[in-house]
Write a structure and sequence with these properties.
This protein has 71 residues and is mostly beta strands. The protein has a domain of 43 residues. Helix content is 8%, strand content 18%. Strands 2-1-3 form a 3-stranded antiparallel beta sheet, with no helix packed on it. The radius of gyration is 14 Å and the shape is globular. Bound molecules: zinc ion. The site of zinc ion has 8 residues, from loops.
Length: 71
């Protein structure tokens, strides 16, 4: 299940949500701090593979920075 990272422009709070693609379609994400629904998804924070700049994999980017891999 991918983790999506969101930024709330209203209070500058950054938070993560784990959900499936199906869930994401059917869920309105709101800021847990100020309850605003105008949050923006931070695409660089998504722990998917498939980044365009996959070169330089030796610097710990083997798994997108997940907490349970790369030692
Ligand atoms: Zn907020």
């Amino acid at each position: 299940m991918p983790t999506y990272e969101f930024l709330c422009p209203r209070c500058k709070h950054v938070f993560e949500k784990k959900m499936t693609v199906e869930e994401k379609k059917n869920t309105t994400v709101s800021c847990p701090k100020c309850n605003s629904e105008e949050v923006r998804q931070q695409f660089f924070g998504v722990s998917f593979s498939g980044k365009k700049n996959a070169r330089g994999n030796s610097s710990g980017g083997c798994c997108g920075g997940g907490p349970s891999c790369c030692g």
